[in-house]
Design a protein that fits this description.
Elements lengths: L1 H22 L2 H20 L48 H15 L3 E7 L1 H17 L4 E7 L3 H9 L4 E4 L5 H9 L4 E10 L1 E5 L6 E2 L1 H9 L16 E5 L4 H10 L10 E3 L2 H10 L3 E5 L9 E6 L15 E9 L5 H12 L1 H10 L2 E2 L2
Parallel strand pairs: 1-2, 1-3, 6-10, 7-8, 7-9
Antiparallel strand pairs: 3-11, 4-11, 4-12, 5-9, 5-10
Length: 360
Amino acid sequence: MKLTKLIETLTVFAFAAFAFALVGCTETTEETTEETAEAAEEVTEAPEPAPKEEAPKPAPKEEAPKPAPKEEAPKPAPKEEAPKPAPKKEAPKPAPKAKAKSAAKKAAAPSTKIVIRGSDTLGAKMVPQLSEAYKEAGNTVSFEIAAEGSSTAFTNLLAGTADIGMSSRNIKDSEVDEFTAKGMEIKDWIGAYDMIGVIVNEANGIENITLAQVEGIFTGDITDWSEVGGKAGPISVYTRNTSSGTYKSFQEMAMNKRDYGADTQKMAGNEQIAAEVAKNESGIGYVGLAYTEKEGIKAIAVDGVALEPKNAADYPIARSLHYYTIEGKLSDAAKAFLEWATTDAKAGEVVSRVGFIPAN
């Protein structure tokens, strides 16, 4: 549009000049000149809008990239110090707990259990005290001890429910045959020596009795104290039960293997017999050497031999106490205990303290 106007203005200018030349009119020429000048000024001034092209100045706004410095935002990188939780990796310190657990396992691992079953004579006092002494000596094992009578030593060994059998008598031939039939070989360990004491109430005047009189009383042939030199009155006889090794040992050594009298009262253990005799002035019974010190009772001499360890070789009712095991089936822990119990001096002290005679 501006170019068109400029051309029109120049045309006018040329026309005016031509007219001026023809007419020679000075005034027209002046007017035309003025108009032309004014038109030229308009044309010249019109282009001034071009400066508006300065709009591109927004380019400087491109300085907006200055936010680039904001890239300093990466300074949060120091926040990466958050990895400081890495020290929390110290959590692996539980590893030491693992040591504690392993240490506990080490303590528990040696906790091998030794199962011992059988004789009340051995199992009521002697073996429990030996087991405690053995543990106090630094041996980390546990024990399960059942004192239910010598016969149970062999039934448990046969059934595999015991490592060691306790017996206050020798194994019978019939019992050996049972093991042989199952391809088992029995081994005998002497644990101690015992003297079976004949006991009466401490108020009883009897101090000595013959082995024949003992047989008569326990078979029922003698029923009154006056028959053996005591104060007249019926005799109350207390014995062990039929599963007891002492029951059988006494029967063999003091009764010539005869049957017990029908009126005898059978007790579960040595302590029960001692307790009954202590309450009954007419009572008589038998117990292992370790049980003769109970209050209310006294042990009487047999055939003139007092019940004392030093007289074991002469006392008519003496016996050995046994541990039985099966060859090839004894654990290392059980074997170690038995070797200690039958040979170590400390074990001998325990046996003596309990009231038996050490085998070593």
